[in-house]
Automatic annotation (TrEMBL):
Pfam families: MFS_1 (PF07690). It is found in: Cell membrane. Coiled coil: none annotated. Keywords: Membrane, Transmembrane, Transmembrane helix, Transport. The chain crosses the membrane at residues 17-34, 54-77, 84-103, 109-130, 142-167, 173-195, 235-255, 267-288, 300-318, 356-379, 391-411. Residues 17-416 form the Major facilitator superfamily (MFS) profile domain. Its main location: membrane. GO terms for cellular component: plasma membrane. This is Major facilitator family transporter. It is a multi-pass membrane protein. The keyword Cell inner membrane does not apply.
Length: 425
């Protein structure tokens, strides 16, 4: 693996990858988060008769495409290379954002959202293959946390820009889609300029595998099967991740609308308040990833404490009687929630799964998590249509977090996590 500098005085290749992938997540999440704050404007532009269930389904169609693309994209990454998967995927993403901007019906928005999900689905496998192959082992955890922080930055800025430009300045909601198209075009150029060709990538990977020949011998007798993939501690980890993502994507999709319709927030305050979750998650992710690396034999405890704490913060958010209490709860949820606990869960999973099947295990793990992104937005919208409030949606997320955490703890309470120095996050 070549981690040398590209040219005298230039950044090392792995550092360029970290920056590029972080910006990639920023771009994806600005698109993902831009529509939720302007659901009322979307409803008005479509004639005013669109239900909350239909609006929540916009996000569900996006994540349906994203989930469907995970396995095919991973297969294509191995066959034709990361660059050849990322660039066509993001071109499709740009076309999809343009289709959403020009849509005259909710059905056309659904089509564009589905296409956007398919395009963005090219990113996950490519991105984390690049980090696994190119980032030095002693820098991998913190570097991956930096990459992941791009999703929080993009989510925060997407909500703020959307609220400011549309809700406060009165611009058409389509402006955010055009901004997304421009950003996607820039990132496609960056992918082309920075990511190595498939030939160079394969040469780098072969060199890495050659250096790890002893490691390959040690794991040659390990097998991956449905029995190992669905062993209790693996299955309950998938369920825990489903619950973690369910709460997060429910918040990402419906928090702006909840603040506006049920808590009296207006204009830019909606986007700013919603973005607190995203921005607070950045220091949380960096802090807890460092702490978990330092105390590697206590990862189960870290996971349980963070998950229960996140559930408590959601409960405080729902029961908040004033804006200060509510905003404090949201900040703490961001600091303790999905982006803080996710790297620790992935690291723990990597230590406990058969190493020869780690890719398959992580694929199943991510599939479970992303399934929640399909269910949560539409279900919460349906609850809102029936009850006139989204509060029950929050309670469902809280209950899922508690149940998932207890199942995970029950499966691991008598099992000590092996002390392994490798970090697969």
């Amino acid at each position: 693996m070549n981690n040398g500098k590209e040219h005298p005085g230039g950044l090392e290749y792995w550092k360029k990858i970290v920056i590029l992938l972080c910006v990639g997540w920023v771009t994806i999440w600005i698109y993902r988060s831009a529509l939720a704050p302007v659901y009322p404007q979307i409803r008005q532009s479509l004639g005013g008769s669109v239900s909350d269930t239909a609006l929540g389904s916009i996000s569900s169609f996006y994540f349906l495409g994203y989930v469907v693309m995970q396995i095919p994209a991973g297969f294509l990454v191995d066959k034709i290379g990361k660059k050849m998967v990322l660039i066509p995927g993001f071109v499709m993403f740009a076309i999809a954002a343009f289709i959403v901007a020009r849509a005259g019906s909710i059905q056309m928005i659904y089509f564009g959202s589905l296409l956007a999900g398919l395009g963005c689905g090219s990113f996950y496998g490519s991105a984390y293959s690049l980090t696994a192959q190119n980032i030095p082992a002693n820098k991998k955890s913190f570097s991956t946390a930096i990459v992941n922080s791009g999703s929080a930055v993009g989510s925060g800025f997407g909500m703020i820009l959307s609220s400011f430009l549309v809700a406060q300045q009165g611009l058409p909601w389509q402006i955010m889609m055009y901004i997304s198209v421009i950003m996607i075009a820039f990132i496609v150029v960056a992918f082309y300029a920075i990511i190595r060709s498939n030939k160079d990538d394969i040469a780098s990977q072969e060199a890495y595998i050659e250096n790890k020949s002893d490691y390959k011998k040690n794991i040659s007798n390990e097998k991956v099967s449905f029995r190992t993939l669905l062993a209790p501690k693996m299955l309950f980890t998938y369920i825990l991740y489903f619950a973690t993502c369910y709460a997060y994507y429910m918040i990402v999709t419906w928090l702006p609308n909840f603040l506006a319709t049920e808590r009296g927030f207006k204009g830019t305050a909606i986007g700013f308040s919603s973005s607190l979750v995203a921005f607070a998650s950045i220091p949380g992710a960096l802090f807890f990833s460092k702490l978990a690396d330092k105390f590697m034999d206590h990862k189960i405890q870290f996971i349980v404490i963070l998950e229960i704490s996140a559930a408590a913060m959601l409960l405080m958010t729902v029961q908040a009687t004033n804006a200060t209490f509510l905003l404090t709860s949201l900040i703490l949820y961001g600091f303790l929630g999905k982006l803080a606990v996710e790297p620790i869960i992935i690291s723990w999973l990597g230590e406990n799964a058969p190493q020869v099947g780690i890719g398959t295990t992580l694929g199943v793990f991510n599939f479970f998590g992303m399934m929640s992104s399909i269910v949560a937005p539409a279900l919460t919208g349906n609850i809102s249509d029936i009850t006139g409030s989204k509060i029950l949606g929050f309670y469902i997320a809280i209950v899922l977090l508690v149940i998932g955490t207890l199942l995970f703890l029950a499966a691991n309470i008598h099992k000590k996590t092996p002390e392994v120095s490798s970090d697969l996050t």
